[in-house]
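Blackboard transcription, Thursday session:
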Amino acid sequence: MTSTAPAVVARGLIKTYGKTRALDGFDLTVARGAVCGLLGPNGAGKTTAVRILTTLLRPDGGSAEVAGIDVATEPALVRTRIGMIGQQTTVDDILTGRENLLLWCRLYHLSEREAQTRSDQLLEHFGLTEAGDKQAKHYSGGMRRRLDLAASFVLTPQVLFLDEPTTGLDPRNRNEVWSALRGVVALGTTVLMTTQYLDEADQLADQVVVIDHGRVIADGPPAELKATIGGDRIDVVLRDEADLFRAAEIVARAAGVDAEVEAQLRRVSAPARHRVSVLSEVIRNLEEAQIDAEDVNLRRPTLDEVFLRLTGRRADDSGETGDPADRDGEPVRTNEEVAV
Amino acid sequence: MTTTELMAAPSAPPLPDSPADRWRWLIRDGFTIARRDAIHWRRRPGQIVAGLAFPIMFVVLYGYVLGGSMSVAGGGAYMDFLIPGLFTMTMAFGVGDTIIGVNTDVARGVTDRFRSMPISAGSVVLGRALADMVWAVVNLAVLAICGLAVGWRWHGTLAAAGLAFGLLLLLRFSLVWAGIYFGLLARSPEAAASSWALLFPLTMLANTFASPELMPGWLGAIANWNPLSATVTATRELFENPGVGGNSWATENTMLLAVGWPVLIMLIFAPLAVRRYRNRSI
Ligand SMILES: Nc1ncnc2c1ncn2[C@@H]1O[C@H](COP(=O)(O)OP(=O)(O)OP(=O)(O)O)[C@@H](O)[C@H]1O
Ligand SMILES: [Mg+2]
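(Written on the board underneath:)
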């Protein structure tokens, strides 16, 4: 249990449910103080991995340590070092925000006085002081997530696990949760969060791990992953479908690779390695060609696009893996740096 | 948001280091968890009214609507026969509340969260048991008042009546453990809710509403051996209400059975419930 041990280590975790291999040799190492984003589509095995690491589930094979402690042999000790926020919020709707926190404070064996003080501090830190005496059923999705987060910080956990903390939230609420998460990272807690959004992993994580069919298929800093999949993308949405072809040429010229055309969305898109220069070149050429665009923007690739790159198939196909090389015209480039 | 610096709190909770401490935490955590339910009741009076209306409805339904056509083996007023049956029935139906309450916590991820914390499995199930017992006491009190209002009386001593209520709560307490087990077992809240469908025949196939002697032979035998019948008969005896008849082994050893059945149920289900709670294979 040395202080230099990684916060989370998983070696060859296996978990099967009947014929389903939820985890199939899952390996992971997360350094202390890091934020790790575990990225994967529905059914990839994210929840299963989190449940094993938080001692809720026993693996069929492999081993894991959290905060240097073995989850299989000393689950009770692991539970004193971790916080866990599951896929649904566990906020009690009928209780007020403060009563929710008092409940958790008491369960962590704070005295009545300490519980009151700590609840106040937590409400304030997570921006809930004003709503503290309202029943949680009146809270927005973001407020509920923040209350969940507050409950995990009655005592400061060494490792905090979050399972899809922002799924189902609108952009404003998602931003609220993100900044609350950045705040807790500052306390020195290691964070392992699962997500279905590359954007989220990119915003928060130092390490992004992509999981598919219970196996890690990519692991590294976000910049490296983005380099692997060709960096950010440029999207051009046109007003008139008739311009699609000409716009695709312009985008392809600027990006240096073939552009993808989605006719029914009137959208042309391509990887944009040199972000701003590609963007400005596209805008200039569209203007010159007098093509009217509804929207031109740079964005992170979606999970779907990441999957297409890494596995040669879409995230929602559960079918076999195709060969990524002959999938389309663009080769997968892995060793070029991306300007972020 | 997050404008203030959150003072870092100690990073590991104190763990009990002696058996005495362990018991102290177990009880204290149990009370903390039970308190959550107490707040729920306070905030949702509608649910309380609905919960209490149920036994009252039975008093009216059986006492007045059907009561006229019911006869008691060995004679006696039907109300005096009925009310001890209703006490037991209410205790049995309470298990439905336990199952649904436990399963709701599972479905909402609350149980997982408790399980990921350094609190003992015992305190979580104990908390549920405590809350349900408080509710059971309230139920019995309302039903007793209702019964007194429609003419039910106990003819024995106050001590005997107290003992009768004790037996009823013992039954409820044993069923709490069965309820926790089935609540943890149920795959979904819908499945949990369907447990009501099983409770109905279980409470009917007893001597709650009719004397087993007046039923067809095989049905009467089942009714006589139903664990609920033991409590019904024992409480009738203690309240000195009519309907304690027959001379089967079950009716002659009614006190033994009224204590024995709940103890047996508890011995089976308490370990199962705690084990299921700790189960790490699902
Ligand atoms: N209790 C269970 N019984 C049977 N199969 C299960 C169980 N839990 C998970 N699975 C299966 O294991 C696989 C991995 O599930 P898991 O919940 O870990 O995925 P996930 O990445 O969290 O997905 P999601 O994004 O939908 O939450 C899925 O195919 C799922 O159907
Ligand atoms: Mg999941």
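Lecturer's comment: Residues A 46-47, 87, 163 surround magnesium ion (ligand 2) (CB under 6 Å).
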